[in-house]
Write a structure and sequence with these properties.
8 strands, mainly beta, 149 residues, globular, four-stranded mixed β-sheet
Length: 149
């Protein structure tokens, strides 16, 4: 069974406000579920407290618009982590993706910033690693579909 990685955040902490579009504009989402097979890698996100995860694009693909030589961009999520704990957060993410721990039908929460559910009750944010502290604002990015050159 394929695992699916789930991210929700990018400024959304109330489940009622998860309408799919973040304040950052085109391509910026409030939540994303992507097959683990689309995961391509991760790097420090430009500081000692962020990790950038890359995925094969969910909107673009090789040969889009019949342009077989078209370059396809990657989608990404930027996670915030405890300063100086990038390697530990990366290790925890990989263990969860590659591990055999039971998931809910293949559903694996990597980061969920929501702290208020639909009923208005307070709930705990959920992260696959104790070193993840959230998703950077407006940083669940699905690149807009290209139409060929």
């Amino acid at each position: 069974m394929e695992k699916y990685l789930y991210f929700r955040g990018a400024g959304v902490t109330d489940e009622d406000n998860d309408d799919g579009l973040a304040a950052g504009g085109a391509g910026k989402l409030t939540s994303l579920m992507v097959p683990a097979s689309r995961f391509r890698g991760m790097v420090p996100g430009g500081s000692t407290s962020t990790v950038k995860m890359y995925f094969d694009s969910v909107k673009n693909y090789q040969g889009d618009a019949e342009q077989a030589d078209e370059n396809t961009v990657a989608d990404y999520v930027i996670l915030t982590v405890t300063a100086g704990k990038i390697r530990e957060a990366m290790t925890d993410i990989l263990r969860a993706i590659n591990g055999s721990r039971p998931t809910q039908g293949g559903f694996l929460v990597i980061a969920d910033d929501v702290t208020t559910n639909v009923a208005g009750a307070t709930v705990s944010a959920e992260y696959v690693s104790e070193h993840i502290t959230g998703i950077a604002a407006n940083n669940i990015v699905v690149e807009v579909a290209h139409t060929g050159s």
